[in-house]
Known about the structure:
This protein is of the alpha+beta class. It is about 55% helix and about 20% strand. Among the domains are: about 5-40 and about 50-80, no CATH class; about 90-125, no CATH class. The protein has a three-stranded antiparallel sheet with strand order 1-4-5. A two-stranded antiparallel sheet has the order 2-3. Strands 6-7 form a two-stranded antiparallel sheet. Strand 4 and strand 5 form a beta hairpin. Helix 2 runs antiparallel to helix 3.
Amino acid sequence: MDTDETNGWYKIMKKNILLILILTFILTVSTVSLADDTNSQTNTSGSNTNITGGYESTSTTTNNNDGQTNTTTSTTTNATTTNGSDIPPPSANAPSYSSMSQDVCSMGVSGSVTTGVVGISAGKHYVDLNCERIKLAKVLQDFGMKVASVAILCQDARVFSAMEAAGTPCPWQGKIGADAAAMWEQYPEMRPDYEMYLAKADIKDKKDAKIAKEIADAEAEAQAEADRLAEEEAKKAEEEAKKRAELLKKIEEAKKKEEITIHIER
Length: 266
């Protein structure tokens, strides 16, 4: 190998070694720091909130080239915050109730309540007394027991009041018509519409008292007017009598004067 080729190869190797040394130095003095990356998650009663994350990077590079020093510092910060909305628990479903038959006088009632914490549902069967009363009345009617059929319907305050308003009072222990009405009047506490009866009686008494007062006031006013007219008539009669007496007195005086004149002329 000649001297020129040897010198050229030596120069190339020198440059490569210098480049390797520079890269090694850069990797040595370069620092990369990561910021704390924290994630926190809290679940409370169906809520998913507070998810946070952060990333911070710092990089420093120093170059030394031909006696000149260049320093570069780069800092990157990335922060993320996520707030999730409250999610309520699933809704409580009310239980389903059915009467199971068309001949059963019962009905199902159910309901449910759901809050942000808990859900509650409940249900129950209730007996329809009015439905039972109608069915019993129909059975008694089919057996030919008309009075008993009406009597069981009369256990309802509305039916009792309607029968009384129609002039056909409900039966009373075998009595019907006017006899039954008299017994109900004698023992009103046994009426199924006793509270309504008292309310109506109170209204009737107040109205009757008002009417009686109005009649009494009208009679008193008429009596006062009659007394006033009688007094005026009495005054008029007295004045007429007084005038008549004065006239008679004048006539008597005139007669006396005339008699005296005649007597003197004679």
